[in-house]
Amino acid sequence: MSFAHLLSILLLASSTLAKTVTYDFSVTWTKGNPDGQYERKVIGINGQWPIPQIDVDLGDRLVINFHNGLPDQDSSLHFHGLFQNGTTFMDGPAMVSQCPVPPGMNITYDFIVDQPGTYWYHSHVKGQYPDGIRGAFIVHDPQGPYKNSYDAEIILTLSDWYHEQMPVLAKRFISYLNPTGAEPVPQSALMNDSQNITLAVKPGKTYMVRMVNMAAFAAQYVWFEEHTMKVIEIDGIYTEPMDADMLYLTAAQRVSVLITTKNDTSKNYAFMGSMDQDLFDKVPDGLNPNVTGWLSYNSNAPLPAALPVPEFKPLDDMLLIPYSRIPLLPPADLTVTLNVTMSNLGDGANYAFFNGLTYVRPQVPTLFTALSVGDAATNPLVYGRDTVPHILPHMQIIDIVVNNQDPGKHPFHLHGHVFQTIFRSSDDAGNFEGHLESEYPKVPMIRDTILAPPGGHVVLRFRADNPGVWLFHCHLEWHLLSGLVTTFIEAPMELQRNTTIPENHRALCVKRGILMEGNAVGRKGKDVLDLRGENRSPDPLPEGFTARGIVALAGSTVTAILGMGAVVWYGGAQVPGEI
Ligand code: C2O
C-alpha cells in the first residue's frame, strides 16, 4: 500500500470519528420543587426540568437549535469554559457577543468542541440562570490520560436554590432599600437538582465523579464519608492525581475525582455538600446549609445520617499540578490591574466596581463594535466607558491582577481562556505590589474560575491567543447584576479579518431594533469617538450624601423620602448589568 493511500485511509478514519451532535432546545416555563419545600415556576427545556445534560465526544461538532419559548423574558446560552476559538459569536453573553434572543425567536449555536472535560452551560442574560436554565456539559475523551483508571462515570451537580424568582430578587437586591448590597441568601443547597440522592455503586470499583457547581451564589464544601477523593481534573484541565478529603467548589468551578469503592456491601455511606456561609451577610434563622447524598452499596441497608465535621479543611487548589506540566509562561507584556470595591451610587443602591466603574451594557454588542469600526477597534473608548473595556494585543502575555478590596470572597471567571493561577495571597494581604517571577510556581495550576481572597489579591497569566470579545467577571450572579464585569477585546484587528456573524444571530438584533455597527452608541466614521448618549451607570452620590447616611436612613421612615429623591435623580437611568 502506498503512503498516500495509507494517509487517505487515516484521514477518512479520523473524519468519521468526529460526529455532529444536535440538540433542539425550546426554553419554556415549567414547574419544579427540588427541595421538597415549595413548588415554583422554573425555566426548563422542552418542558423538562432539570434541563438535559449535554454530552459530546472530544472533537465533535455541536449544533444547538435554540428557541426562546418564554413569553416574557429574553434568553441566550453560554458554554462555560469553552474557548470558542474562531467562534467568539457563539459565546452567549447578551450585548457582548450577540443580541439577546427575544421571546419567540431562534438562534443556532454551532461550534467544534475541542477541549475535554467537565463544563456546564447556562443562560447569560440578566440574572436568569438561577431560575433553572443551567446544566452539565460533558466532553468525553476516549483517549484521556485516566481512561483506564476508572470503571464508570458519575455526574454530581451542586447548586443553590431560591424559592422566589430572580427578577423579583434582583429588584430587591439592586435597590436603595438594600443600601448595604446584602445578597439574597438561598433557601437550600441541591445535588443533581434534588436532595437526598442515592448513587448506586458496586464494590471494588473506581468511579470518576465529575462535580460541577452551578450555583447562583453559594460555594460548597464537599466530602465523602470514609472515601478518599483523588482529584484528576479541574475546569477541563487534567491534573496530576492528588488525594483530598474535602473539596471547595465556588460557583462555576468543576472538579473531577476518582473514588474507589469498598469491597464490602453491608453499609451505605453519606456524602455531603455544605454551603459556605461566609458568603452570607446574615444567615437566616433555620437555614439548612447542607445537602446530603449516599453512595448506595446495598439498597436494603439503611442510609445513615451524615456525621458533623469538626472543621472545614478543603484541598487548596493552588497545590494542584496540571497533567500537561505546562511551565510558567514568560513575564507579562501587559498587566491589567483590577481593583474591586463596592459602594453606593446616587440612586442609593449598592454596586460593585472594577477600578471605580460598574458595568452597564452598551447599545451595540461589543463584538459588533469591534468588527465594524475599523482601526478604531483598538481604542477602548469606542466600546463605552461602562463596558469597562480593555484591549488585549494579539499573542501578548497578559497578567490579570485582581486586588480584592472587598471583605467578601469572589470567584472570578474569564471567558475564552484558561489562566495560570500564579499567585494567590492570604486573606487581608492587601494589594499586589509586585512579586518576583521566582516567587511564582514553575508549573502553575490552570483553570477558568478562581477564588479571590477577601482583602487580598490574585495574579492570573495567559497568552492572548484567542481573538474575540471575552468577559471577565465575578461568577456570583448577584455581582453580575451589580456590575462586577469587565470586557476584554482581544486582538480586534485579527478578529476583523476572520469573523462572519451568522445570519440568524443578526436577525435577533433586527427584531429588537439593536444596531449592529458603530461604537457603543452606533456612531461610525469620523464620529466614532463621539459617545454622547452612551449607557451609563447612575452618577455618584450627591456631595455630602454618604453611603453611611443611606445605611442609617434605610429601614427608617425617611427611606420613602430618599426613594422619591432617587426617582427624581435617576428617573431614566439604565438598568446596569443585564448580561
Ligand atoms: Cu459561567 Cu460569564 O459565565
UniProtKB/TrEMBL annotation:
Residues 27-143, 153-299, 359-492 form the Plastocyanin-like domain. GO terms for cellular component: high-affinity iron permease complex. InterPro entries: Cu-oxidase-like_N, Cu-oxidase_2nd, Cu-oxidase_C, Cu-oxidase_fam, Cu_oxidase_CS, Cu_oxidase_Cu_BS, Cupredoxin, CuRO_2_Fet3-like. The keyword Ribosomal protein does not apply. Its main location: membrane. It is a single-pass type I membrane protein. Residues 1-18 form the signal peptide. Keywords: Cell membrane, Copper, Glycoprotein, Ion transport, Iron, Iron transport, Membrane, Metal-binding, Oxidoreductase, Repeat, Signal, Transmembrane, Transmembrane helix, Transport. It is found in: Cell membrane. GO terms for molecular function: copper ion binding; ferroxidase activity. GO terms for biological process: cellular response to iron ion starvation; reductive iron assimilation. Belongs to the multicopper oxidase family. This is Similar to Iron transport multicopper oxidase FET3 acc. no. P78591.
